[in-house]
Structures are given as C-alpha cells and as structure tokens.
Amino acid sequence: MSLDDWEFTVRTETGVRYQWNWQELMALPSETPTVDIHCVTKWSKFGTRWQGVSLDVLLANVESGAEYALVRSYGDYTTNLPVEDLLDGKAWIVHRFDDEELPAEHGGPARLLVPHLYFWKSAKWVRGIQLLDEEELGFWETVGYHEYGDPWREQRYRGD
Fold this sequence. Notes:
It comes from Streptomyces labedae. This is Sulfite oxidase-like oxidoreductase. The chain is mostly beta strands. Helix content is 9%, strand content 34%. It is globular and about 40 Å long.
C-alpha cells in the first residue's frame, strides 16, 4: 500500500469521523514501547521493541461514550475490543519494529499493538476503529476465538 493512500479513521457511535493521513500520523508524538507479545498458537516473544502513536493521543479529542471498539484493517479483517483496553498506555498504532519500518508481512505500514491480549487482537494493516455502544464480534471471534483473548487466562477459544 502506498503511504499516500493510507489513512486511519476513528468513527464514533454517533457517526462523527476523525481522520489522519500518514503524514499527520507521523507528526503526532510517538512512543517506543518494549513489550511481550503472545500468540494464540502458544508462543510468546519477550521484550519486543516498537514505535508508534498511543491510542491515548489519537482518542484524546474524540467525543464518545462508547464502551466497545471494532478495529478494521485494509482487507476487511476486523477484531473487537473494549475501549478501556485501548486507553491508559495499553495500545498503539505502530509503524516500526526493532528500529526498522514495519514490513507488510507483519502488518505494515501500520498495525494495532495491544500487547496485553493475544496477538490476533493487534490487527495488521490497520485502517480504523469504529466505536460502538454494543459489542460486535470481529472476524476470528465469529469463527470461535474468544471474545476477549487474555493470554494469562488462556482465553483462546469461545468458552475458555
């Protein structure tokens, strides 16, 4: 995907849109979190280094009372999360990994990073977040993955 065509949109539960192009995202304050990541296939990687914009920054001026978010990716992949899991230093839109641009096969140019949940919640090729009053399941959640995905409670599949 061309960076000239990339955009990130937050749409509130009332339909108000907030939008950033690549240059606008790069102009925002960035952070460099070092975090552990956990895959539903039972592997973990410790001390991974990322760079990106905190969702606290992106959502700071978004007026919303929504409790849920549906994250959308280029390619129409979706995943759902409670809004509280995107705030308070818990989530970023990242564009660098280990001091390199994030490659396409790992979600570049930008992906969501929510390291306290299983990695399928950290949607690759992110393009936006829809804020919702009621939970709407994402792609993997509709085919049997757990609605929340806490690795410490081993919430891999529905019913775990």
